[in-house]
Design brief:
This protein is α+β, with helices and mostly antiparallel strands. The protein contains 9 helices and 13 strands. The strands form 2 sheets. Strands 1, 4, 5, 8, 9, 10, 12 and 13 form an 8-stranded mixed β-sheet that branches. A hairpin with a 5-residue loop joins strand 2 and strand 3. The longest helix is centred in the first third of the chain and has 29 residues. 38% of the residues are buried. The structure holds the ligand Nc1nc2c(c(=O)[nH]1)N[C@H]1C(S)=C(S)[C@@H](COP(=O)(O)O)O[C@H]1N2 and molybdenum atom (MO).
Length: 326
């Protein structure tokens, strides 16, 4: 454990661990495959990919608990990250600061009953049960890249609802220029909150035009099933053109505002984590380059794309200097 000040999202520490993970992971794959070959019949039925995934598959859609899910046109044409990796390599500091901590400790989070308070610049404020928030909408599958500010990335098939469609139900007023989000605070359910590594509750925010962009979603599931707790159950934001820390998990409050909200990572290290946090290979983090990233499951690093490859959002920032507003 570090002794100096708050923990800060950091690339080098993570990369060192990933290399170990990868070696173990490749060995496990080899082992599973050779075990299958020894078993004979299994090797005839399955290729290496399928065998390596044994035990890692999410529940079948019939048991997903989500009902009907519509495929959407928003799907990157890249292989999705293994379910196992996407659910065991996480950032969710409410459960600890190591990548393995959320999968280990998030079982203590009670995701039902759950409600979300909608406040501020809306004509119809209120506290809404999770089920009532979701019910009027069609769930869509959206396969997006997720680029963490720490320079790793994944491709995740989310299940969710456009954020704008939800916000509009509460009648935003003409003063609603920003949206603020908050995660649950509960030291019993979220043991990582017993330490002041961040200023709880975890808070995030978007400008209203960003929140209304069709790419921004509230996710309730991934890989065809409900969100695992470590991924932000029962409800989390996904903003694929921004660094992952913007995609706040386990949301209990949505507040529409006239002024820009303070956000957790920006408060904790303003020079390192901006409010906008658009993925930008040309603006380095003060302590590491953002030009390349490692896709979890790959060995080589790949170039990072402007806006994480979602350049249709560029028009939202046409008049802004994205080096200044990072
Ligand atoms: N409440 C909360 N939300 C959070 C975080 C967190 O620590 N707490 N971590 C963020 C970061 S840094 C990333 S990269 C993504 C990771 O999402 P995933 O674990 O589902 O891949 O969640 C984001 N949302
Ligand atoms: Mo992140």
């Amino acid at each position: 454990m570090k002794s100096r000040g708050p923990l800060i999202l950091s690339a080098p520490r993570i990369l060192a661990r990933e290399i170990t993970d990868e070696t173990l992971y490749l060995r496990r794959r080899e082992f599973l495959y050779s075990a299958a070959v020894t078993a004979g019949t299994l090797a005839l039925a399955c290729g290496p990919g399928e065998v390596a995934n044994a035990g890692n598959e999410p529940a079948a859609p019939a048991e997903s608990g989500l009902g009907k899910i519509e495929k959407s046109a928003y799907a990157v044409d890249e292989p999705t990250t293994d379910f196992k990796d996407a659910t065991t390599y996480n950032n969710f500091y409410e459960f600890g600061t190591d990548k393995e901590d959320p999968a280990r400790h998030a079982g203590s989070l009670r995701t039902r009953p759950w409600s979300v308070a909608i406040e501020g610049e809306v004509g119809k404020p209120g506290v809404v049960a999770y089920e009532d928030l979701i019910k009027p909408h069609t769930l869509e599958e959206r396969t997006y890249r997720l680029r963490c500010v720490e320079a790793w990335s994944m491709v995740i098939p989310w299940v969710g609802i456009p954020l704008g469609a939800i916000l509009k139900r509460f009648d935003p007023t003409s003063k609603a220029k920003y949206v603020e989000f908050e995660t649950l605070v509960d030291k019993e359910q979220m043991p990582g909150q017993r330490r002041n590594v961040l200023d709880w509750p975890y808070r995030e925010g978007l400008r209203m035009d960003e929140a209304l962009h069709p790419l921004a979603i509230l996710a309730v599931g991934m890989y065809g099933r409900e969100l695992p707790n470590q991924n932000g159950a029962p409800l989390r934001l996904v903003v694929p053109w921004k660094y992952g820390f913007k995609s706040i998990k386990s949301i209990v409050k949505i507040r529409l505002r006239e002024t820009q909200p303070n956000t957790t990572w920006n408060d904790s290290a303003p020079r390192e984590y901006g409010f906008f946090a658009n993925v930008n290979p040309e603006v380095d983090h003060p302590r590491w380059s953002q030009a390349r990233e490692r896709r979890i499951g790959d060995f080589r690093r790949r170039p990072t794309l402007p806006f994480n490859g979602y350049e249709e959002v560029a028009s939202l920032y046409r008049d802004m200097d994205l080096r200044k507003f990072f």
